[in-house]
Amino acid sequence: MSGPMALEPGGAEQDTLALRPPAALRLPRALPDDDPTLVVRLPRPVPDREEVDRLAAGLADRIGPAVHPYEVAALLEAEGLSADAVRQRYGHPDLFSLASALYERVPRTFPELAAAPDPWRPDTVRCLLRGVLFALPGLAYLLAAPLGQAARYAPALIAAGVVSWAWGQALGHRAHLRLATGRHEAGRTLLTGAALGAALATATGAAVAGGGPVTLAAAAQSLYLAAASVLLVLARERLLLAALTPLIAGAVPLPWWEPGPVLRLALPLLALAATLAAAGRVLRDVLSTPPAPGTRRPPLPVSLPYGLFGLAAASLVLLEGRQHPYAVIVLTVSMGPAEWLLYRYRGWSVAALRATATPAAFLLRSAGLLGLCLLAYLLPLTPAALLTGADPAALLLLAATLWTALLLQAFGVAWPSALICLTAAGCAALVTLLRLPPGTAVLPLCCGAAALCLSVCVLGLLGRPSVHA
User: Fold this and answer.
1) Residue 354 near residue 428 (C-beta atoms within 8 A)
2) Which residues cross the membrane (predicted)?
3) Most buried of 121, 237, 271, 424 (most Cβ within 10 A)?
């Protein structure tokens, strides 16, 4: 409507919808003090403190965690408290007034949530078994060493072993990516990758040795490492242990019994055949599972940093083994406890999320966890280094470098660990080959610098709560 409508004779100015100036409004005049007019005022409700206290005591466990009176109001509504009951029984004008009173009476309590199961709880027996399995193949060298010239065979076997180590790291990462898609896809990746890795390592050994029977030894070593990688990726550690039984049976009595050249050669070959047969059987079972539909292969460069880290780790271990061969055995066996500590770090980090309230507090807790894991890993290696006659500083710094790098890789941070370890290995190898100062001290210096850089990366990248959420 554009204006007021005339409802009665006399014009629109009498219409109740017409706008009037304030002067035209008639306000009720105030009554004088001597006016005998009776005014009735309804009494306001008075809160019944006893009833309110009784209600607060009955609902204290549910009101305490509330962060706002509105949560208490919702609780009272859920309890079926009516507006009449609020006014008549508790003496409050409305539900929100009663909720505010209850919120003020009950102190704030925030109970701890029920402890959730640790998703990163490690299998202790499996981790220890893996450490033993990493070292057991060394028994084959112990058995076969008297059959030929060890100094002649060593360069080819070392070169093939370094290639197998680097290839196995990359293949293991790619196979685990495919395992997330399906076991059939992982089996295909392992079948193709293991065959290519064994061929590449054998070719490297043959190139270093210049052909001859050394090539056969390099081929046997490469085939074993490829088959063992298949079994370890597919979590068939006990089957691999059973395949290595001939090596154990032949090496244990060596201090008291000479098996002869036939057994010294036959037992490693029997263990190799058993390992290949076990890997073939497992791959056959895996490939018999139906493939997952619509899957895509991950790009090859994704696994490149893992292979580069394997190359760097093999080089660092090789440099340590040149001076102290038995220290390499100690380091190899320690990979089992190292894997166990990787799981524990992840589990403890998830627990730290529940125990801290600020990013700074979580960073401080992460630094403590890193120090605790490193101490637990390195402390048992100290007497082992002394028993083997190795330099404790070199062995401990090398172990710290490898563990922190593996920790970053466990969280998918592969390139920093690979580049840092490659730099350390390259510097140490260059100084060693050219016989530059500081000589043998270069390995602990490079490993110490690498461990420090990796620790900074761990705190900077893994010290954030979002990484563990």
Assistant:
1) no
2) 127-144, 150-168, 189-208, 214-234, 239-256, 300-319, 325-342, 362-381, 393-411, 418-436, 442-462
3) 424
Over residues 329-370, the pLDDT tens digits come to 999 999 999 999 999 999 999 989 888 889 999 999 999 999
Question: Domain limits at 464?
Answer: 303-468
Best CA proximity match to 318, nearest among 426, 467, 205: 426
Token couple for 183 = 């076991």
Say what the pLDDT of residue 14 is: 45
Separation of alpha carbons 285 and 234, rounded Å: 11
Other CB atoms within a 10 A radius of the CB of residue 425 amount to 26
In-domain check, residue 13? no
Nearest to 392 by CA among 401, 403, 381: 381
**344 shares a domain with 255:** no
Is residue 17 situated within a structural domain? no
Q: Which residues have CB under 8 Å from 256's CB, separation 6+?
A: none
Smallest Cα–Cα separation from 402: which of 327, 352, 460, 463? Answer: 327
Which distant-in-sequence residues (6+ apart) come within 8 Å of 443 by Cβ? Answer: 316, 319, 320, 394, 398, 428, 432
Q: Rounded to whole angstroms, what are the CA distances from 371 to 270, 412, 464?
A: 44, 21, 17
Residue 53 lies in a domain: yes
Residues comprising the chain, all counted: 469
**Phi/psi-derived region of residue 241, left when phi > 0, alpha when psi is between -120 and 50, beta in every other case:** alpha
How many beta carbons lie within 10 A of that of residue 14, not counting itself?
Answer: 12
**204 and 275 housed in the same domain:** yes
Phi then psi for 240, rounded to 5 degrees? -65, -40
* Cβ contacts of 179 within 8 Å, gap of 6 or more: 185, 186, 233
CA atoms of 343 and 364, how far apart (whole Å): 20
* Pairwise CA distance, residues 192 & 96, whole Å: 70
- Dihedral angle at the C-alpha atoms of 408, 413, 414, 419, nearest 10 degrees? -80
Instruction: State how far the Cα of 385 lies from the Cα of 330, in Å rounded to an integer.
Output: 8
| Helix 335-355 with 359-378: angle, nearest 10 deg | 160
Residue identified by tokens 């309590």 is 109
Say how far apart CA 135 and CA 164 lie, in whole Å: 15
Q: Which of 290, 318, 342 is the last residue of a domain?
A: 290
C-alpha distances in Å from residue 376, one per residue of 132, 242, 373: 19, 30, 5
Same-domain pairing of 221 and 330: no
Tokens of 385: 């280094």
Contact 63, 103 (CB under 8 A): yes
**Residue 353 to residue 466: CA distance in whole angstroms:** 9
Sign for the CA dihedral angle at 5, 8, 10, 13 comes to: negative
Tell me what pLDDT residue 185 has: 94
Same domain, 132 and 99: no
pLDDT digit string (tens) for 384-404?
999 988 889 999 999 999 999
